[in-house]
Design a protein that fits this description.
463 residues, alpha+beta, two-stranded antiparallel sheet, 16 helices
Length: 463
C-alpha cells in the first residue's frame, strides 16, 4: 500500500519517474548523469519512396509490406549505412493488412534489417508518416537513440474486406459449437444479408460523412468555384509533369514487380489535361451541384516511403552529409464536421506563433493536397482576419502562402496520396527543394481525417 510520505514525495517530484525515494547520493549522481542537458539537433539524412501508382494498376499482385520493404532496402542502398546502426524503426499506415498488422516489423525483417532493431507501426490517418517522423524526432532529440528510420505505406489495391458483423458473430459461435446439432442450429440462423461484405470505412465514424462531402461543403463555405479548383488541380499536374521530366523527383527508387519485364520508375497518376476536359466531369460526391470531381481530387494510391533520421553528431561522425534539420512541429485538432480539412490553417498558424516566424521567413511550402478545393479554402481561411479572430485566437490573419513558393514539384493531387506514406514525401521534397532553390526554411503542413492537422519546420543543412 502506498504510504502518505511516499505519495507526497512522488507528487512533489517533477521527475518522479527517474527518482528513487531512498536513493543514495551516488545513485542520484548516476541518475543525474542520464539526464540530457539540452535537446540534440535532429537531421534528415535522406528520404526515398517507391513510385506512387494508382491503386489497382502495376502493384496489384504484391502486398503492402513488399512496398515498405523496398523503401527500406533502397534507403540502405542509397545511404550506404550499416543496417546494424539503426536503433528504431517507425512506419505509418492507415488501412492495415491483417496478416502484417505491425508492418514496420514485418517489412524490416523482410528487408534484412537487424533482428534486434525494434519497430512499431502508427496510424493517424493522412498524417501517419508525419507522426512516424516526429515520434522518431522525440527519441533522437532527447538522446534515447542516435539513428532511426521513419516511413509509411499504403496499399489500397487489396484493402481487407471482411464478413459483416452478424456473420462474424455466427462464425465465432460456430467455432465454439461442440456437437453436430449445435452446428446445425447455428446454420439455420444464416440469412442472405449475412453474406454482404464489409469494406474498410471511408466515412468519419464520428460524423458519418465521407471526406469528399466535407471537401465539397468546405469549398462552398469559402466560395471556392469549380473553375478555381480545376485550375489549381491542373497546376499541380503540370508542375509534377515538369518536375518528373526534369529529373527533380530524385526520391523515387525504381522497383521490380513480378510479372513485369522492366522496373517501375515513375508515378503513373500524373495527367496533364485541359480545363475544357476537366470541366466535362460530373461532381463526384454532392450531385448535381457539387464542385469536387475526380479531376480536382487526390486519387487512391499505392506506395511507400522511408527516411533516415539521425542526431547531427552521429551523422557527422559517420561522414554523412545531412539534407536538413527538423526544427519544430505541432499537431492540431478541430471540429471534424465543419472544419475537417482545415488542418493546414490551424497548424500553420500554430507553428509560426510557436517559432516566432512569419510567412516571409518561409522559402518553401509543401502542403498535402487532399482536394483542390481544400487547399484553396485553407488559403482563404489563412488570409481572413475574421477567421483568425474567430477561430485562431489571433488579432489578424496569417496570410496565404505565396503561390510562387507552393508545391512547385506537384502535390498529392498529381503525384498521388498513399495515406500512410505522404508525410515522408512532403518532408523529403521540402528538403530537396531547399537544396535546389537555395532556400533556408520550409513549412510542411497537412490535414487528416478526424479534423487533425500537422505542421513542421524544416531547415536546409548548411553547405
Amino acid at each position: 500500500m502506498l504510504s502518505k510520505k511516499l505519495y507526497t514525495s512522488l507528487k512533489s517530484s517533477a521527475n518522479y519517474g527517474l527518482r528513487a525515494i531512498s536513493c543514495s547520493s551516488t545513485c542520484n549522481k548516476k541518475l543525474d548523469a542520464t539526464k540530457s542537458s539540452s535537446l540534440k539537433n535532429v537531421v534528415l539524412v535522406e528520404g526515398v519512396r517507391t513510385p506512387f501508382l494508382v491503386s489497382g494498376t502495376d502493384y496489384n499482385n504484391i502486398m503492402a509490406h513488399d512496398l515498405q520493404r523496398h523503401a527500406f532496402v533502397s534507403l540502405l542502398r542509397r545511404t550506404g549505412i550499416p543496417k546494424e546502426i539503426i536503433e528504431y524503426i517507425i512506419v505509418g499506415t492507415v488501412i492495415q493488412e491483417v496478416k502484417t498488422s505491425n508492418i514496420a516489423r514485418e517489412a524490416s525483417l523482410g528487408a534484412g534489417l537487424s533482428l534486434h532493431t525494434p519497430a512499431h507501426t502508427v496510424t493517424q490517418a493522412c498524417i501517419s508518416s508525419n507522426q512516424a517522423i516526429t515520434t522518431a524526432f522525440g527519441h533522437l532529440s532527447t538522446g534515447q537513440i542516435d539513428v532511426a528510420v521513419a516511413g509509411g505505406v499504403e496499399f489500397l489495391s487489396d484493402a481487407p474486406i471482411r464478413f459483416n458483423r452478424p456473420m462474424r458473430k455466427l462464425m465465432i459461435s460456430a467455432n465454439k459449437a461442440k456437437t453436430a446439432m449445435q452446428r446445425i442450429q447455428l446454420l439455420l440462423k444464416l440469412r442472405p444479408n449475412y453474406f454482404t461484405p464489409e469494406a474498410p470505412g471511408v466515412a468519419e465514424f464520428s460524423t458519418g460523412e465521407i471526406m469528399g462531402h466535407s471537401g465539397d461543403r468546405l469549398a462552398a463555405a469559402f466560395e471556392v468555384t469549380r473553375e478555381e479548383q480545376d485550375k489549381f488541380a491542373l497546376r499541380s499536374h503540370t508542375l509534377a509533369d515538369k518536375a518528373s521530366k526534369e529529373g527533380l523527383l530524385t526520391d523515387i527508387e525504381p522497383m521490380f514487380v513480378p510479372g513485369k519485364n522492366k522496373p517501375i520508375s515513375k508515378d503513373n497518376g500524373i495527367r496533364v489535361s485541359s480545363l475544357e476536359q476537366m470541366a466535362k466531369l460530373r461532381p463526384a460526391f454532392i450531385k448535381p451541384h457539387g464542385t469536387v470531381t475526380a479531376a480536382n481530387s487526390s486519387f487512391l494510391t499505392d506506395g511507400a516511403t522511408a527516411c533516415l533520421l539521425m542526431t547531427e553528431e552521429k551523422a557527422l561522425s559517420l561522414g554523412l552529409k545531412p539534407k536538413a534539420y527538423l526544427r519544430n512541429f505541432v499537431y492540431t485538432a478541430q471540429d471534424p464536421k465543419d472544419q475537417l480539412l482545415l488542418g493546414p490553417t490551424y497548424s500553420t498558424s500554430k507553428i509560426l506563433d510557436k517559432t516566432g516566424l512569419t510567412l516571409k521567413d518561409i522559402d518553401v511550402f509543401e502542403f498535402h493536397e487532399a482536394f483542390a478545393g481544400q487547399i484553396l479554402a485553407n488559403f482563404k481561411a489563412l488570409d481572413s482576419d475574421w477567421f483568425a479572430q474567430t477561430y485562431l485566437n489571433r488579432k489578424q490573419k496569417v496570410g496565404a502562402p505565396p503561390i510562387e513558393k507552393f508545391n512547385l514539384w506537384g502535390g498529392s493531387l498529381s503525384l498521388g496520396h498513399p495515406f500512410g506514406a505522404t508525410g515522408v514525401r512532403l518532408v523529403t521534397t521540402a528538403a530537396n527543394r531547399l537544396i535546389k532553390e537555395g532556400g533556408q526554411l520550409a513549412l510542411v503542413a497537412a490535414c487528416a481525417a478526424g479534423g487533425l492537422g500537422h505542421g513542421l519546420i524544416v531547415e536546409r543543412y548548411p553547405n
